[in-house]
Amino acid sequence: LKPAARLAPAPCRWNSGLPMNIGVLFVPQQEAWVVERMGKFHRILEPGLNFLIPLLDRIRYVQSLKEIVINVPEQSAVTLDNVTLQIDGVLYLRVMDPYKASYGVEDPEYAVTQLAQTTMRSELGKLSLDRVFRERESLNASIVDAINQASDCWGIRCLRYEIKDIHVPPRVKESMQMQV
Predict the structure, then answer these.
(1) Nearest to 92 by CA among 151, 11, 12, 27
(2) Which domain holds residue 85?
(3) Which of 32, 42, 44, 71 could crosslink 37 through cysteines, CB 3.0-4.6 Å?
(4) Residue 89 in contact with residue 161, Cβ under 8 Å?
(5) Does 39 map to a domain?
(6) Whole-number percent of the chain with pLDDT over 70
(7) Cα(34)–Cα(99) distance, rounded to whole angstroms?
(8) How many domains does the chain have?
(9) Do residues 53 and 141 both lie within one domain?
(10) Are 133 and 166 in contact (CB under 8 A)?
(11) CB within 8 A of 81, min separation 6: which ones?
(12) Is 73 contained in some domain?
């Protein structure tokens, strides 16, 4: 890697663009600002006019309360009948508890994306290739349930998971067409 590429910080939605504490703050609608007083959690600022003590209070996290859409990258998964599929999806999330989303996990979006990928692989491993295409809705629902069980302590709620594409290997595709 180039030295400049290693030193560049990764973009992080939770910590970027933190507002300065000038005493009087206006929090926008659908945002929650997490305030620390002398390094310890103090309170969550609600939308509207808020007052803070300069030098003592610091805005540590800005959490968006809007629905977040995350692309789940393509991954390979093996079905019950040993067919390798390439599958990707879309995840719809919402921060329900700004405190938990700030202090429960380092990077909530990354954690939920990884959880969605591993759950998808494990759910596909339980089904044969024929059933994967028929039971797409139940696959989506079981992934949402698994994510919600794990992400409850992170203050995040998964609203939906949608499988975008399922790519079958060319040989398997040809044999499926011959079978039809």
Answers:
(1) 151
(2) 67-178
(3) 42
(4) yes
(5) yes
(6) 87
(7) 7
(8) 2
(9) no
(10) yes
(11) 128, 129
(12) yes
71 and 43 within one domain: no
- Regarding whether 111 and 147 lie in a shared domain, the answer is yes
DSSP state of 8: S
Listed residues 16, 48, 64: the one ending a domain: 64
pLDDT digits (tens, 9 = 90+) for 65-123: 999 999 999 999 888 888 888 999 999 999 999 999 999 988 888 999 999 999 999 88
Percent of the chain surpassing pLDDT 90 = 46
Neighbours of 20 (CB within 10 A): 9
Q: For residue 130, what are the CA distances in angstroms to 21, 22, 83, 126?
A: 58, 61, 11, 12
Q: Which long-range contacts (CB under 8 A, 24 or more apart) does 7-13 make?
A: 12/107, 13/64, 13/109
Phi/psi at 98 (5° precision) = -60, -35
Q: Which DSSP string corresponds to 64-82? A: E-SEEEEEEEEEEEE-TTS
Residue 1 lies in a domain: no
In a domain, 152, yes or no: yes
Q: Which of 166, 82, 68, 78 lies closest to 113 in space, CA to CA?
A: 68
pLDDT band at 176 (very low <50, low <70, confident <90, very high): low
145 shares a domain with 115: yes
The type of residue at 1 is L
Please indicate, yes or no, whether residues 49 and 91 belong to a single structural domain of this protein.
no
